[in-house]
Amino acid sequence: MLKLLEEAAKLKVIAVVANNRIRTLRFIEAAIKKRRPSLPPQKPKIINAEDLEGEKLKNLKNSTATYSLFEEEPQAAVVINNCSQLKKEASEWLIQLAKSQSTSSEIFIACAKQEKNEKKELKDLREKLTSVKAYFEIPELDEKGMVAWLTKELQTAGFKNPTKQECLRIAQFAESDPDSMMAIIEKLSLLAEDEQIPLNKIDGLNSLSLGAEIFKLCEVLPQKNFQTIPHLTELLINGNQSIMLNAAVAKQICEMLAIKDLNNTSAIEKTLSIQHWLAEKKLKLSSKFSLQKLVFSINALLNSDYLLKNRSLGPPFPLLKSIAKIENV
Q1: The Cα angle at residue 40 between residues 38 and 44, in degrees rounded to 5
Q2: DSSP 3-state of 16
Q3: Which residues of the chain have pLDDT under 50?
Q4: For a Cys-Cys bond, which of 84, 151, 175, 178 suits 20, CB 3.0-4.6 Å?
Q5: In degrees to the nearest 10, what's the CA dihedral of 163, 164, 169, 170?
Q6: For the range 37-43, what are the long-range contacts, defined as Cβ-Cβ under 8 Å and sequence gap of 24 or more?
Q7: Which long-range contacts (CB under 8 A, 24 or more apart) does 174-179 make?
């Protein structure tokens, strides 16, 4: 893996190939760090391949072709996601760029592993980038590699001295999928009370499908009848999940504040990187809440987060109390 990274860091335009988002991202971050060792970390600019046409393609060509010695800092690297959606013009431009390596900023093309029935443009892109040695396929993790990778991710999340057994337990629960492992680490971080991994709570994660349930909760809050969602009511009174649920509800409320400020479907799509239909759904939901109610909700949830972590009322009650308060604003 280190040798692969060394080779990748020598080039400015490469394809990074893996069947999971998180390892692709980590490889790209490491390559940028190797290319820019003396500079502070800089977030790459993310572009969806399906958007790379017309004016957007022209703007990217111009921004990566220009370079000034007087620029105070280098341009952010560019990551092109979902390369299977690349149009012919964009694909041909990237092939030429990979051959010349003449660009003012690094460009990473994120690809899934090759499938049998791929369209011609994508096959050509893979073949041409392979021929100029700008095609980097990230190898699958064996057990040793998985433990090492998970150990690093757990330490980054704030867990101290994770053991091999803890790493293997998480890998087993996630069926060895790195993206699922990261989701589990994020949830465990919310449940942790100290620097130790709360493995005793890992089995409870399986029943918790937060995204849809939290959206349902926020939909019914203006109607003051969250008890009409049986599964969610069950989760709310389950002490093991209360901190995680509190954080998830807070995240949804913060998102609604941002959406209320944007108040435009196109702007929401671009800012949150979501599909049009979902942007419309989220805009409709946020319109049900007044600004006063959203601000009050954030304050109530911050208070319940403090109470939950200090266990002053017992796990479920602070969150239930906050939900009740928000309903009655």
Answers
A1: 115
A2: strand
A3: 68-70, 207-209, 226-231, 237-240, 312-318
A4: 178
A5: 80
A6: 39/73, 39/74, 42/73, 42/74, 42/76, 42/77, 43/76
A7: 176/141, 176/146, 177/20, 178/20, 178/22, 178/23, 178/141, 178/149, 179/20, 179/21, 179/22
* Tokens at 297, concatenated: 């909700």
Torsion angles phi and psi, residue 77, rounded to 5: -65, 155
How far from chain centre, in Å, is Cα 120?
A: 30
In this structure, what DSSP letter does residue 226 have? G
CA angle 80, 64, 93 (to 5 degrees): 60
* Residue 118 exposed, middle or buried by CB count within 10 Å (0-12, 13-18, 19+): middle
SS3 helix, strand, coil % of the chain, rounded to 5? Answer: 65, 5, 30
Q: How many CA atoms lie within 13 Å of 203's alpha carbon, on the beta-carbon side?
A: 1
Read off the tokens for 242.
């209360």
pLDDT of residue 241: 58
CA distance 233 to 238: 9
Q: What is the pLDDT of residue 134?
A: 92
- Asked if 111 and 138 touch (Cβ cutoff 8 Å), the reply is no
Q: Scanning the structure block, which residue is given the tokens 């007087």?
A: 70
Q: CA separation (Å) from 173 to 18, 136, 152, 178? A: 21, 29, 18, 11
Residue type, 190: L
- What is the rounded distance in angstroms from the CA atom of residue 212 to the CA atom of residue 113? 29
Return the pLDDT at 318. Answer: 47
For residues 240 and 208, give the distance between their C-alpha atoms in angstroms, rounded to a whole number: 11
Give the helix ranges, DSSP H, for 101-177.
120-131, 143-156, 164-173
Measure the CA–CA gap between 66 and 80, rounded to whole angstroms.
Answer: 19
Terminal-to-terminal C-alpha distance of the chain? 55
Closest C-alpha among 120, 67, 71, 111 to residue 92? 120
Structural contact between residues 242 and 319, judged by C-beta atoms closer than 8 angstroms: yes
Residue 70 has what pLDDT? Answer: 47
